[in-house]
Design a protein that fits this description.
Layout (H helix, E strand, L loop, with lengths): L9 H17 L8 H13 L3 E2 L8 E6 L6 E7 L26 H17 L7 E7 L7 H7 L6 E10 L6 E4 L2 E2 L3 E10 L3 E2 L9 H18 L7 E10 L5 E2 L2 E10 L2 H22 L2 E8 L5 E2 L1 H13 L3 E4 L10 H4 L4 E7 L18 H27 L4
Parallel strand pairs: 3-4, 3-5, 5-16, 6-15
Antiparallel strand pairs: 1-2, 2-4, 6-16, 7-14, 8-12, 8-13, 9-11, 10-12
Helix pairs in contact: 1-3, 3-9, 5-6, 7-9
The structure holds nickel (II) ion (NI).
Length: 397
């Protein structure tokens, strides 16, 4: 698919971006395996004369549109990975990779940010600095943002913006939230070592299955009895493994699950509480238990100034701006926000099913306005940083 000239013709641009989205949709790739996706993105950017940074990334791409060379730097970010879901939507661009689907609309995010890159390229002469255009791998596994940061491709970036589509909102609706928007996402494993025995003589062993069952129930008391009712904590055990047959009490049991929290202070207290539950119950039975904690992305925490700015630009672009509720889902955009101020926003795409559903769809009419929005946002963010700096340096004589 070639677009050799950057176009500001809306119809031409729209049909190209729809092609981009459909092309990605038909050939989805899982987290950290986005080899073909990255190659295509690189080609689409380079065909439009947009330079691609030479940074050490296995998958993912960072493009750059450079206007005024001594100006500030901002970034716009799309994620590019798909999910291990078998698509049930029949269409000419249905996934042709069995068991893999763009069911979270990252193909939409990619098309939107490519469109924004084209529009920025068109305005290159007038933009007051540099825009880094980030196509991040592996959002679904929660660690792709770290590889982008480690690549050095965000050096000098003073503000960063990202998007997620919302299939349950109409096209033209722009969702925004100042402060915490998504949950901190942690994964845990629990290993329990008891003592195997004959199933008919449990007194000779230490039954890890009974212990596991008690731990599973007791973990919920961390939510119901040890956390303020107004604080959000979710603890879900999602995997249990133990035993091989009906007449033997096994030696060990294994549990796995996830914890979601909206406040960092609360998040920090959870591993200790889980450990106390494990210790109490295993000691009661004379078994040994161990918690293995895998900290994932923290909460997306939108910067007040940039959130207000992003909302204002949305309004001037004709979006209906609504305030959205924080979710217990996760989003690794938060890793960028640990060192760069920024805002993460929602764009309505009027689908029929929710995210991660095998029948997830979206209305492609949402692509072009979102591309214009992100180009405008990046351009005006540069203007704002530039003007703020001038004002700061200005000393009345
Ligand atoms: Ni997603």
């Amino acid at each position: 698919m070639g677009l050799n000239i950057v176009t500001d013709n809306k119809n031409e641009l729209e049909s190209h971006l729809i092609d981009v989205r459909r092309n990605l949709h038909a050939e989805p790739e899982l987290s950290n395996q986005e080899i073909k996706t990255s190659k295509k993105i690189k080609k689409w950017l380079e065909n439009a004369g947009i330079s691609v940074l030479d940074v050490p990334l296995k998958t993912g791409v960072i493009g750059e549109v450079r206007g005024q060379s001594d100006g500030p730097v901002v970034a716009i970010r799309a994620d590019i990975d798909a999910l291990a879901i078998n698509e049930e939507v029949v269409s000419p661009f249905q996934s042709n990779i069995p068991g893999v689907m763009h069911a979270c609309g990252h193909d939409f995010h990619t098309a939107v940010i490519i469109g924004a890159a084209y529009l920025l390229k068109n305005r290159q002469d007038r933009i007051k600095g540099t825009v880094r255009i980030v196509f991040q791998p592996a959002e679904e596994t929660g660690h792709g943002a770290k590889s982008i940061i480690a690549s050095g491709g965000l050096e000098g970036v003073e503000a960063i913006f990202g998007l997620h589509n919302d299939p349950l909102s109409e096209v033209g609706v722009f969702g925004v939230k100042d402060g915490v928007l998504t949950a901190g996402v942690d994964r845990f494993e629990i290993n329990i070592r008891g003592k195997g025995s004959h199933a008919a003589r449990p007194q000779e062993g230490i039954d890890p299955i009974v212990i596991a069952a008690e731990i599973i129930s007791r973990l919920q008391s961390i939510v119901s009895r040890q956390t303020k009712p107004s604080e959000s904590v979710v603890i879900s055990v999602t995997q249990i493994r133990s035993g091989n047959t009906w007449n033997v009490i096994p030696e060990t049991a294994y549990l796995e699950g996830t914890v979601r929290t909206l406040k960092e202070e609360i998040r920090q207290t959870i591993p200790g509480k889980i450990e106390r539950v494990i210790k109490g119950i295993t000691e009661t039975y004379g078994a040994v238990g161990e918690l293995v904690w895998h900290a994932g992305p923290p909460s997306v925490n939108n910067d007040t100034e940039w959130t207000n700015f992003a909302s204002h630009i949305a309004e001037t672009n004709g979006y209906k701006v609504v305030e959205i509720e924080p979710t217990s889902g996760g989003e690794d955009f938060s890793f960028y926000q640990q060192s760069i101020r920024g805002a993460f926003v929602n764009i309505g795409v009027a689908g029929e099913y929710g995210l991660h559903h095998p029948r997830y769809t979206l209305n492609e009419e949402a692509i072009l306005p979102a591309a214009y929005y992100f180009a405008d946002l990046a351009e005006r963010a540069l203007n704002k940083i530039y003007a703020d700096k001038l004002a700061k340096d200005y000393k009345p004589s």
